Amino acid sequence: MKEFVRNCRLCKKPMKSSPFMMCPTCLRDSEQIRSFIQKNPHVSVTEISRYTKVPLEKVESMVYLGYNSKNELESELH
Q1: What is the distance between the alpha carbons of residues 31 and 9, in angstroms, rounded to a whole number?
Q2: Cα–Cα distance measured from residue 74 to residue 76, given in angstroms and rounded to the nearest whole number
Q3: For residue 70, what are the contacts with CB-CB under 8 A and spacing of at least 6?
Q4: How far apart (Å, rounded) are the C-alpha atoms in residues 59 and 55?
Q5: Tens digits of per-residue pLDDT, 21-62?
Q6: Of residues 57, 14, 9, 52, the one with CA closest to residue 33
Q7: In this structure, are residues 54 and 26 in contact, taking their beta carbons and an 8 Å threshold?
């Protein structure tokens, strides 16, 4: 049986099929960014990129796709 391959929703690189929409690297980056935003809710996208070492384009893509949005994090805290 052939292995199903799809592209990561964030970086668009091919990945093996999984229940996640992102590849393992993007999932790690997303979790790192999410943690940073929780600790520093009033930072800019540029600061997030600088302190997490995740490329600015990837951070912007996460915001555009709705990942790691500050509203989402604030609602989880209440």
Answers
A1: 15
A2: 5
A3: 37, 41
A4: 7
A5: 889 999 999 999 989 988 998 889 999 999 999 999 999 888
A6: 52
A7: no
Residue type, 65: L
Tokens for 12, please give them.
């668009």
Number of CB atoms found within 10 A of residue 63's CB: 15
CA distances from 38 to 4, 32, 35, 74 (A): 35, 10, 5, 8
Tokens coding 10: 């964030």
| Residue with token string 């929703």 | 9
Average pLDDT over residues 58-74: 67
Residue recorded with tokens 């990942």: 67
pTM (two decimals): 0.72
